[in-house]
Amino acid sequence: MSSETARDRASEILARRYDVLVVGGGNAALCAAINARRGGAEVLVVEAAPRFYRGGNTRHTRNLRCAHDEANEVLTGPYPEEEFWDDLLRVTGGETDEELAKFTIRESKELWDFMNEQGVRFQPSLGGTLSLGRTNAFFLGGGRALINALYLTAEKLGIEVLYDAEVTDLEIEDGFFSAAAVSYAGREHRVEAKALVAAAGGFEANIEWLTEAWGPEAENFLIRGTPYNKGSMLRMLLDRGVKQIGDPKQCHAVAIDARAPKFDGGISTRLDCVVFGIVVNRNAERFYDEGEDFWPKRYAIWGRLVAAQPDQIGYAIIDSRSIDKFMPSIFPPIEAGSIEELAGKLELDPGKLRATVDGFNAAVQPGNFDPNALDDCRTEGLAPEKTHWARTISEPPFYAYPLRPGITFTYLGVRVNKRAQIIMDDGKPSANMFAAGEIMAGNVLGQGYLAGIGMTIGAVFGRIAGREAGNYVRN
């Protein structure tokens, strides 16, 4: 199709009046669009990214956390709602809307069947430090395969999708949506719809907004996901009387390889070696318990921990016994024959790093090392202690990975209820505006993160938003 023909086709699409306008192109948006369409609604999806980069952060995901009562061909055992809630409560420290969180967990039990019905396929869990075989379903082919399956279903259902299309304004009066301004190919188009589903992600790719919250430290953050999540949709909604939820400094932030690109590095830049060694800062000092809990329950705190260190950088250090125990980064480790040589390559003080390693080694207690359990390998007499998986760093060669805060998505968002209705500042739900995904994840995630729960929130509330938008249109 020529560019001129494509523009004409897009102008024709944008000139129609729709039942449901879905803003965003990831998991939450597609789940909403599919459910709305299955309910009989005429649906338009507008995605700010080009077609190749469609899908937002869903492109980089690997798995989905879901409650279930028994094992199946992929999940190795039951994961009851009560255990899921206990895991979420632990990582959030209680910073969650309990009613919405428990509702999300209960609804997650339907996601396995729903995703299979949309053509999504699963594979057994990856090994290493993940320990997710019982709790999380891994997508066969990863996030891009998932998003391709959802788009294929949307296409078969007759859902209109427009790429490179950014919403630049919203017409909202007294909590009621009537139209959106959509920029496409240099022109503004007014698109009317009976209902709106906001599923356009957070503001993690907006460095200026991150700096407002974090200060100049944000300049050193790396963005793991899409560069298209600028938060413009979120800002428009908040400026038009929508109730805010969450803290702008709270986010899914993990420690990633400092050599990763500024944007879109994805899952391959994550480092899973932390539990097998020590992590030091620019001053060659440890600053947190590397073995506090299983990695999927703690990996998301390490971005914030590194962000609080001088120059927002850290260094994970292991020895030869641990180099094959985790999924490696896309970048090779920095290798040295001695701790002093390693310090030189990292531009750290050799004497300080040697003292830190020696002090750690001296504090390691005898135990039975087991990467698949909360073992009894710990330290004694250190601050901070390492409570599990503590082994001396003594077998050369020695390896290091530089760490930076890697921001996946932000938790500042819009308030919703169990029908995915957007709540206005006066406390009343909008009749025809709904939200799903990162833009409302702060209702469930006040802080902390559980591996795979972002996909859970997006799919659960995407399905509900689509269903409720369709119900509103019919009624």
Automatic annotation (TrEMBL):
Entries under InterPro entries matching the protein: CobZ, FAD-dep_OxRdtase_2_FAD-bd, FAD-oxidoreductase_2, FAD/NAD-bd_sf, Succ_DH/fumarate_Rdtase_cat_sf
Keywords: FAD, Flavoprotein, Oxidoreductase
SUPFAM superfamilies, per database record: FAD/NAD(P)-binding domain, Succinate dehydrogenase/fumarate reductase flavoprotein, catalytic domain
Keyword Oxidoreductase: yes
Cofactor(s) demanded: FAD
Gene Ontology molecular function, alphabetical: oxidoreductase activity
Superkingdom in the source lineage: Bacteria
Keyword Oxidoreductase listed: yes
Location of the FAD-dependent oxidoreductase 2 FAD-binding domain: 19-454
UniProt-listed NCBIfam families: CobZ_N-term, PRK08274.1
Stated name of the protein: TcuA: flavoprotein used to oxidize tricarballylate to cis-aconitate
Gene source species: Lutibaculum baratangense AMV1
Taxonomic lineage: Bacteria, Pseudomonadati, Pseudomonadota, Alphaproteobacteria, Hyphomicrobiales
